[in-house]
Amino acid sequence: MVDTATVLHVDLDAFFVAMELLRRPELRGRPVIVGYPGPRGVVSTASYEARRFGVRSAMPMARARELCPGAVILPPDFSWYAPASRAFHAILRSYSPAVEPVSVDEAYIDVAGSERLFGTPAEIGAAIRERIRAEIGITASVGIAVNRLVAKVASDAAKPDGLLRVPPGEEAAFLAPRPVRDLPGVGRRTADVLAGLGIATIGELAAVPESVLEAKFGRHGADLRRRALGIAPGGVASALPGRRSISREHTFDRDERSAERLRAVLLSQAERVADDLARQQRAARTVVLKLRFPPFETITRSATPGRQLLFADELYDTAAGLFEAAWEEHGRRPVRLIGLGAAGLTERARQLALGETPAPGALHDAVLALRERYGDAVIRRAAELPGPPADAP
């Protein structure tokens, strides 16, 4: 009988921490947190020892220090993590072309059709874990199921350093005893509403009549019940390799009030996103602006100009228009975080418009070559340079 549970969710265990422990083995067994330690810093990754104290990813660093005052806090070093991430995704692609990266440390892979070469899905999952351990030096957890939703929950349940397969037809039974927050797509607010209805587990959610959930959540209610039963559409999206979006964000140490400073940071982000697009030979259709106001009010705005966007100036002009409108709409309040993203990624294939010259592309290629060789800071626009202090004469 053909095994239809062919979707694997592969997740590197506490990736940033695991990479730091490779070069700091003396910290093994101790609570370790990777993240920026500043007043606005958040936890990027916490070791399992730190998690026992309640420390979690995206938690404010100040709160993490309160929960685990003895933790070793290390700043992230993405130049150290990036080669390992590339090796991880290359390992996955050696087993199947159907790989959908989610982030630097997790991905989905559909191994249907690979069985004759590499064995059953469980054997492929075990081989992937062994290669990650041997070639990178860290561990990974694997969940196997008929769809991505259940595979994701299974890999979380297998952590750390484990493998869990959910047999076809047993999705609802597997999910039933787990807390509703374990169900992808159920955030804190939804969980709070469900708790008000007396629903604590995924099985209890699945038992609620669809009409009741629709009355509470609208159309989302029916989807919520289907997901609680382990029913989820969509396979592994691998038609376009790489990420489906590229973004940069910056959190200010102090809430930023200066329009000039905000625009300068936005321009810097446009430069870096354009560089990433060029490295991946991709173009964007949509620009996404993200703003966060204190204490934690976050808004996003997006625009799709109707053409491929390749260069920093194009990204910045679109993002700046979004920024001006959104900032004005919110009373030009101080900004805690600003971010620029490129979405709707396509293959890079734009033709020159009437009157357009190849000069911007040649200039961008030259700047990118310099940054690749000497680092991002080797060349910057004047607008990116910090201005004089606010109290300067």
UniProtKB/TrEMBL annotation:
<feature type="domain" description="UmuC">
    <location>
        <begin position="7"/>
        <end position="187"/>
    </location>
</feature>
<feature type="binding site">
    <location>
        <position position="105"/>
    </location>
    <ligand>
        <name>Mg(2+)</name>
    </ligand>
</feature>
<dbReference type="Pfam" id="PF11798">
    <property type="entry name" value="IMS_HHH"/>
</dbReference>
<feature type="active site">
    <location>
        <position position="106"/>
    </location>
</feature>
<comment type="function">
    <text>Poorly processive, error-prone DNA polymerase involved in untargeted mutagenesis. Copies undamaged DNA at stalled replication forks, which arise in vivo from mismatched or misaligned primer ends. These misaligned primers can be extended by PolIV. Exhibits no 3'-5' exonuclease (proofreading) activity. May be involved in translesional synthesis, in conjunction with the beta clamp from PolIII.</text>
</comment>
<dbReference type="InterPro" id="IPR043502">
    <property type="entry name" value="DNA/RNA_pol_sf"/>
</dbReference>
<keyword id="KW-0239">DNA-directed DNA polymerase</keyword>
<dbReference type="InterPro" id="IPR043128">
    <property type="entry name" value="Rev_trsase/Diguanyl_cyclase"/>
</dbReference>
<dbReference type="InterPro" id="IPR017961">
    <property type="entry name" value="DNA_pol_Y-fam_little_finger"/>
</dbReference>
<dbReference type="InterPro" id="IPR050116">
    <property type="entry name" value="DNA_polymerase-Y"/>
</dbReference>
<dbReference type="InterPro" id="IPR024728">
    <property type="entry name" value="PolY_HhH_motif"/>
</dbReference>
<keyword id="KW-0234">DNA repair</keyword>
<keyword id="KW-0808">Transferase</keyword>
<dbReference type="InterPro" id="IPR022880">
    <property type="entry name" value="DNApol_IV"/>
</dbReference>
<dbReference type="Pfam" id="PF00817">
    <property type="entry name" value="IMS"/>
</dbReference>
<keyword id="KW-0515">Mutator protein</keyword>
<keyword id="KW-0548">Nucleotidyltransferase</keyword>
<comment type="subunit">
    <text>Monomer.</text>
</comment>
<comment type="similarity">
    <text>Belongs to the DNA polymerase type-Y family.</text>
</comment>
<feature type="binding site">
    <location>
        <position position="11"/>
    </location>
    <ligand>
        <name>Mg(2+)</name>
    </ligand>
</feature>
<dbReference type="InterPro" id="IPR001126">
    <property type="entry name" value="UmuC"/>
</dbReference>
<dbReference type="Pfam" id="PF11799">
    <property type="entry name" value="IMS_C"/>
</dbReference>
<feature type="site" description="Substrate discrimination">
    <location>
        <position position="16"/>
    </location>
</feature>
<keyword id="KW-0227">DNA damage</keyword>
<dbReference type="GO" id="GO:0003887">
    <property type="term" value="F:DNA-directed DNA polymerase activity"/>
</dbReference>
<keyword id="KW-0460">Magnesium</keyword>
<keyword id="KW-0479">Metal-binding</keyword>
<keyword id="KW-0238">DNA-binding</keyword>
<dbReference type="InterPro" id="IPR036775">
    <property type="entry name" value="DNA_pol_Y-fam_lit_finger_sf"/>
</dbReference>
<protein>
    <recommendedName>
        <fullName>DNA polymerase IV</fullName>
        <ecNumber>2.7.7.7</ecNumber>
    </recommendedName>
</protein>
<keyword id="KW-0963">Cytoplasm</keyword>
<keyword id="KW-0235">DNA replication</keyword>
